[in-house]
């Protein structure tokens, strides 16, 4: 039987967690697979590995969501690295790992990334990691138990936004210019612009107009 070669990327700012992932991967059907594993410790080193012209496309990427940012390239999290991979290596299967347990955050990750795997770290055991990896390798989607339970409790068609999004919509509805909103909300202009883009995607605003965003948000009682 021919051995299948796979390139794996692991990005996490905790070295012992990286070692745990590597141990699980190397024990997965070693007679059938040969894994080439590359690792990075933060958004900057992850970005450099992904964008290196000499890097072969990855087959699977394990990405922690919360890591030190690479602000120069506007890479603030594992989600941003995932989007970078989606642009440059569209066939790569992405497994996101997080400590977040807020429903809004989980639903946002699924909506914007649609990862092959989404794992709450508190759910993670060695056996669970092997099981998740097996599901993803077989082209299935894997959500850990906490993710499944959260999604079960959420109304299917509900739209949920956080406090910053609500404040952005409020100020847009009052005619506040986008570059003035940081005077009222303690996040950067870049973050506000990114949130507005995400809100337009969430609410299916085709025109890209802020007025249309406000109109639809009002109709859905988000402001």
UniProtKB/TrEMBL annotation:
InterPro entries: CheY-like_superfamily (IPR011006), Sig_transdc_resp-reg_receiver (IPR001789)
Keywords: Phosphoprotein
Response regulatory domain: residues covered: 7-137
UniProt keyword Thylakoid, yes or no: no
One Pfam family this sequence matches: Response_reg
Modified residues (4-aspartylphosphate): 64
Matches recorded under SMART domains: REC (SM00448)
GO BP term, example: phosphorelay signal transduction system
Taxonomic superkingdom: Bacteria
Official protein name in the record: Response regulator
Organism expressing this protein natively: Flavobacterium shii
């Amino acid at each position: 039987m021919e051995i299948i070669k796979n390139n794996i990327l692991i990005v996490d700012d905790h070295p012992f967690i990286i070692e745990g992932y590597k141990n699980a991967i190397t024990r997965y059907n070693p007679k059938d697979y040969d894994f080439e594993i590359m690792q990075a410790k933060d958004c900057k080193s992850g970005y450099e590995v992904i964008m290196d012209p000499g890097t072969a496309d990855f087959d699977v990427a394990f990405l922690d969501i919360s890591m030190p940012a690479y602000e120069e390239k506007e890479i603030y999290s594992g989600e941003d690295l995932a989007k970078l991979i989606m642009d440059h290596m569209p066939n790569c299967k992405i497994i996101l790992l997080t400590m977040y347990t807020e429903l809004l955050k989980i639903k946002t990750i699924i909506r914007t990334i649609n990862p092959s795997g989404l794992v709450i770290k508190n759910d993670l055991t060695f056996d669970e990691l092997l099981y998740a990896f097996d599901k993803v390798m077989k082209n299935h989607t894997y959500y850990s138990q906490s993710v499944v339970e959260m999604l079960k409790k959420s109304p299917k068609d509900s739209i949920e936004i956080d406090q910053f999004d609500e404040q952005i919509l409020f100020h847009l509805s009052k005619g506040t210019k986008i570059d003035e909103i940081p005077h009222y909300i303690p996040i950067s202009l870049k973050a506000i612009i990114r949130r507005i883009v995400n809100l337009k995607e969430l609410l299916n605003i085709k025109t890209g107009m802020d007025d249309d965003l406000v109109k639809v948000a009002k109709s859905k009682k988000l402001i």
